[in-house]
Every structure is written in C-alpha cells, then in structure tokens.
Amino acid sequence: MQQSESSQPSVIVVGGGLAGLAAAHTVLRSDGHVILVEKEKKLGGNSMKASSGINGAESFVQQKLEITDDVALFATDTMRSATGEASADVNDLVSVLTRHSAGAIDWLVNAMGVDLALVSQLGGHSRPRTHRPVKAPAGFAIMSALMKLLEDYPPERLQIKTGTKMRSLIEADGSVKGIEVVGEEGKSLSLYGSVVLATGGYANDHSSDSLLAEHTPHLKDLPTTNGPWAEGEGVKAALGIGAATVDMDKVQVHPTGFVHAEDPDNKTKFLCGEALRGEGGLLLNSQGRRFVNELDLRDAVTAKMNEQSGRKYIVLNAKAAVDLGAHLGFYTFKKLMKKYDSSRALAEDLGMDPEALAAELKAYNRSAEQKCDAFNKTVFPAVPFETDEEYYAGEVTPVLHYTMGGIRMNPKAQIMRQGPGGDLQVIHRLYGAGEVTGGVHGNNRLGGNSLLECVVFGRIAGATAVADLAAEDKRA
Fold first, then answer.
1. S-S: 259 plus which of 30, 109, 359, 395, CB 3.0-4.6 Å?
2. CA-based angle 417:420:422, to the nearest 5?
3. 277, 298, 327, 459: the active-site residue
4. Helix 138-150, helix 18-29: angle, nearest 10
5. pLDDT tens digits for 433-473?
6. CB of 400 within 8 A of CB of 139?
7. Cα gap 433→15, rounded to integer Å
8. Are the beta carbons of 372 and 410 closer than 8 angstroms?
9. pTM for the whole thing?
10. Do the strands 194-197 and 424-432 form a parallel or antiparallel pair, or are they unpaired?
11. Residues 401, 274: contact at Cβ < 8 Å?
12. Has 254 been annotated as catalytic?
C-alpha cells in the first residue's frame, strides 16, 4: 500500500550532487524546510568525481592573483564553445551563468569553506579562470564541504532520503505538488512540496527507454565517465507532465578518459581531467608525436584524437606535476598513470622511439619560445620539457562525458512547457538545476562550466522556490 507523508516541506530536492546541495543549502539558509532525495546509498553523484575545477570571472581569488578577466569575455568564450562562432550573441542563461560566477566562487569559499586557491587556464578560455583546491580534486573538496555542513540541520528542517528513487512527479491544477518515490525496501511513498530536479544527465542511460539511444544512437556504445546513476530519470519524469526539452541530441564526448591497462575494455572510464592539459600536459600518439592544440575546445581535441590510429597518451613533466599533486597521487594509485625518471624511460615503456620523442619535446620548447606552434597553441605551461626530468603518462581515449540537452528552464530556474499557442509557459512549483536542464551549453560545454552551472542555478532554483512559496503564503 502506498504511504503518504502528511507534513508539507518547503522544497523537495531530487538529486544529491552539487546542484541539489546548492539548492538545499539555499533553502535551508532561507529558513525553509528540505527533503533531499537521492537514489544512491550516499550523496555525491558525478559532482564528487569532477576534477578540473569551477569557473569564475572577476572573482576575488583572481584579483588576489592579479589575473585580469571580465564577465563579458567569459560569456564570449562560453558562447564560442556553445556555437562554434567567434561572435555569437550571449543568451539569457549564459548571461546569468557568467554574471553570477564570481558570486559562486565567493559563496563556496567564504560561506561553505571550500579551498579554491589555484586558478588555471583550460581549453577554450581566454584567461585563467578555472578555480580548484590545492590539496584535493575540486568536486571532492566542494561536495565534502557541502555534505558536512548539512549535518548542522536538525531533522525537522532537513530530511535526507538516500536509496530512494523518484518514479514520477505529482501534478494537479497546472502545479507540481510533489513526487512519487520508491524507498530502499521497495515501499511506495508520496512526498509533497515544491520540487527542484537536480538528477543529472543521461550519459549512461542504457535502459529500455534510453534517451541516448533515442537521440544519439551513434554514441550509445561509447565508454562513459558517468556513474550508473546517470540514466535521465529527471528528464523522463518532467517529460511525463509535458515539460519541454532542448538540445537532446547534444552529447559531449570528452577527449580524454583513462584506459586502465588491467581493464582496457571496461565501458566506464575515469575522466582524465582538463586540469592536466591546463597545467601543461601534452597529448601524444603512439609514435610520440603531438597532433593537436591541447588547449583547444573539447570537440576539436576529440576530433583530432579520433584521427589518430593506435594508442594516445597524456604526458606531464615534473613542472606540470607540481600543482597536480592530488590528481596525480590518485591517478598513480589507481594505476591510470605511471611515473618515469626520464623521457627515454617513458618512450621505451610505451613503445616509442626515444630519440623521436626527445626531438618532439625540443620542437615544443622552441614553439613555446615563439609563443605559437603549428596547431595555433599560444599558451605553454610547464616549459621547457627536459629529457632528464620526471614524467607521468597514461593512455587516454574519447568518452561520453556530459549531456548538454535536458529540460527547458528560464533564467529563474523554473521549468517550462510548451503552451497551446507554441509559447513557453512556467510549470508552477517545478525547478531545475545542473545537467538535468538544457540550454546553457549549446553544442559543446566549456570546461569548468559544469560545476559552475550547478552552483549558480542550484542557488537560483532554491531561491526562486522559496520566493514562490512566500508569494503563495501571502495570497493564501
């Protein structure tokens, strides 16, 4: 028999990743009540695995490091990645994302206590603006801090229901009233309140009604960096009440997922984060030759990866490794990367000609001196590459990483449906944030914008939900 919760919480947040926790904290800090629903046994999701960092333009951290940046340039970079055009008009969602980016960094550091002291320049960016911690990968550090702070709230303010899967949205009179869920013991339950969907994307959706198979059948068999939870339940639940979607065929293939030497055919890969290339990592083919601007946009790097026959490798020298200690410690522990005492040792182990590799490194150093190379690379971290310094290397391959498409939202994070006349209308008391939504990233997400989207729109979703509930109370 179905059970029902009699108490009416302020907001139900579905999804325990960064978007969900940003929304939950925002509601709680506004004296609201939250039910946080997560289908896995613990919080974290893909956010916990994010490594490269979170973008912010005109942040106080940049200012401390004397990095010159501005929001307009960040918006231009985001739109160039999204459209492939150098001067595309900035849409409303990108405007919100970039204008709130400095505030997102400030909130994480000063309100949540996250270390984001390092700033690097990732592919597709005109300035260094991707923030990350000194001692841990960004996603782990951010999520650990936000999860720890949830412990401050008593159960009458915050209920956390892990192992609880949303089955559908409850709608009546054009307004969302709550969700139907199934708990760990298989019991059905109705939860009532406004709903923030923060359930992530569908880049590991191999279910009978797979969104990958429906919208990108040519990609469905690629390996993925996503956990088994990335099955698109939030999108499907919203579709069940008529929500509109956008860009559902836009799925990002990240150029670098690690190939584990002991399990090369595993369809789930660890992401080789963009931070490795941002700090100076080189991409080499099986002959030890570079073939791409490592700091180009993700889709461009992926295209060049696919042109290469044989294995491809990410290679870092000792200088590049200095600010990547936490990453490299994890990757070497997991046997995804291997340490070498010289470029010769690396070449011999990977079946490359040591002299050819040495010549490639010298050519790269010359290009760095000239500040441009044959691939139009103009930023050269960690140079010079010396043949007698330590190196790290790991095999990499393109992987399904992120779904740009999802349910439509407006700049207030309200979910939309298409009205009878074709216009978009708000679905009352339904909000969204993070990868479950679409429209922010266009054809190709810019590195570092995923965690940012989660924080910016998670906070907006929580704030809008609180404001809408207050307005309802006034009308009552």
1. 395
2. 70
3. 277
4. 40
5. 999 999 999 999 999 999 999 999 999 999 999 999 999 88
6. no
7. 10
8. no
9. 0.90
10. parallel
11. no
12. yes
pLDDT at 228 over 70: yes
Task: Yes or no: say if 169 and 195 are a contact pair by the CB < 8 Å rule.
Answer: yes
Amino acid at 449: N
Structure-block tokens of residue 330: 């994890």
The string of DSSP codes covering 52-67 is S-EE-SS-HHHHHTT-
Helices 92-99 and 71-83, packing angle to 10 deg:
140
ω before 381 within 30° of 0 (cis)? no
Beta strands in 173-250 (DSSP E): 175-182, 188-192, 194-197, 245-246
**Quick one: tokens of 115?**
């270390």
Q: How far apart are CA 338 and CA 391, in angstroms?
A: 8
Annotated catalytic residue, options 33, 80, 125, 254: 254
Q: Minimal CA–CA distance to 21: which of 102, 106, 112?
A: 112
State phi, psi for 234 to the nearest 5 degrees: -65, -40
Would you state the pLDDT for residue 5? 47
Phi/psi zone of residue 290: left (φ > 0), alpha (ψ -120 to 50 degrees), beta?
beta
- Give residue 1's pLDDT: 35
DSSP β-ladder status, 391-403 and 312-317? antiparallel
HEC string of 99-141 equals HCHHHHHHHHHHHCCCCCCEEECCCCCCCCCEEECCCCCHHHH
Tally the C-alpha atoms within 13 A of residue 67's C-alpha that lie toward its C-beta: 23
Residues 225/399, Cβ–Cβ less than 8 Å? yes
Catalytic site includes residue 289: no
3-state SS track over 426-475: EEEEEEECHHHEECCCCCCCCCCHHHHHHHHHHHHHHHHHHHHHHHHHHH
Three-class secondary structure of residue 188 per DSSP: strand
Sign for the CA dihedral angle at 124, 130, 134, 139 comes to: negative
C-alpha to C-alpha distances, 251 to 173, 219, 274, 406, 440, nearest whole angstrom: 34, 8, 17, 10, 13
Give the DSSP letter string of 334-359.
TTSSEEESSHHHHHHHHT--HHHHHH
Reported as type and span, the H/E element at residue 222 is none
Residue 455 tokens, joined: 């924080």
Helix (H) or strand (E) holding 307: helix 298-307
Q: How far apart are CA 151 and CA 111, in angstroms?
A: 15
